[in-house]
Design a protein that fits this description.
The protein has 241 residues and is an alpha/beta fold. It has one domain (4-163, 206-240): Vaccinia Virus protein VP39 (Rossmann fold, 3-Layer(aba) Sandwich). 47% of the residues lie in helices and 22% in strands. The chain has helices spanning 4-18, 22-30, 33-44, 66-72, 87-99, 140-150, 168-190, 193-205, 209-219, and strands at 55-60, 77-84, 108-112, 125-131, 151-162, 223-229, 234-240. Helix 5 links the parallel strand 2 and strand 3 (108-112). Helix 3 crosses helix 4 and helix 7 (168-190) packs antiparallel against helix 8 (193-205). It binds S-adenosylmethionine (SAM).
Length: 241
């Protein structure tokens, strides 16, 4: 397994290389379904938002800012902090934000930051989202600890990420598609087979959705559950502090 510093550097360099092609590749690899999953994730973490007037939320590992934008469109949300450790991904996010002329876009602040050392005080956010991010952090337990620290009591966190399907038939299809198709697409469209090979390999050490949910319980969250999407190939883990 890669050491913490090595993994962080490797991940940073990888997203630096693919930043400009990230959105395009995401769209073709998921047939644009990632937008639907992200909306479902945001709704799952919005349980207490309708009862708040000026909710402040955090989108962790924001990348090009899809989920930050979804949060910002909610009338009850007044501030969206969106952080990522890779400056070129943030540049893409800000480029997209500048093109939006709607007032909600001004609610978002993009800033560099590390999920392992969040630059925020304790009990600060009403909700937190992280899309396809926790799988990439070098120390998952520490990231969950940091999420717990900056979330307000009663607040919700949602992690949207790859899952581990239970059914052998789905497992077979998933592994074959994943192992062959994704690195091939990465090589054709991003000229970066290694980055998309990593996407496949990262599944080996990534916990099953049930185990990830357990990690939130272990950290002290008052409830935690998972929800399978796409037959468990994608999963949401939702927890409340
Ligand atoms: C697969 S992308 C997901 C982007 C976006 N959330 C989405 O769903 O499209 C993962 C992002 O996590 C960021 N990342 C990885 N490790 C991080 C860390 N320790 N702290 C903050 N961001 C991190 C990467 O730079 C990258 O932009």
């Amino acid at each position: 397994m890669l050491q913490i510093e090595n993994k962080s550097l490797f991940i940073n360099q990888m997203f630096t290389r693919i930043a400009k092609k990230y959105d395009f590749l995401n769209n073709i690899m998921t047939f644009n379904l990632h937008q639907i999953w992200k909306k479902q994730a945001i709704e799952s973490a919005s349980v207490n938002i309708p009862y708040l007037k000026h909710a402040k939320v955090l989108d962790l590992c924001t990348g090009t800012g899809d989920m930050a934008q979804m949060w910002a469109k909610k009338p009850q949300v007044s501030k969206v902090m969106a952080i990522d450790s890779c400056p070129p991904m943030l540049e893409e996010a800000e480029k997209r934000q500048r093109k939006i002329k709607e007032p909600w876009a001004t609610k978002i602040t993009f800033m560099p930051g590390d999920a392992l050392e969040l630059p925020f005080p304790d009990d600060n956010f009403d909700a937190i989202s992280v899309g396809f991010g926790l799988r990439n952090v070098a120390d998952l337990s520490r990231a969950i600890q940091e999420i717990f620290r900056v979330l307000k009591p009663g607040g919700f966190i949602v992690s949207l990420d790859l899952g581990h399907p239970e059914q052998p038939f789905i497992q077979n299809i998933y592994k074959n598609i994943f192992l062959n198709f994704i690195p091939l697409l990465g090589s054709i469209f991003a000229g970066d087979k290694l980055a998309y090979r990593y996407l496949v390999d990262s599944l080996e050490t990534w916990p099953k959705q049930k185990e990830l949910s357990q990690m939130f319980w272990d950290q002290g969250f008052t409830r935690s559950y998972f929800k399978d999407l796409m037959f468990g190939t994608i999963a949401l883990v939702v927890a409340q502090k």
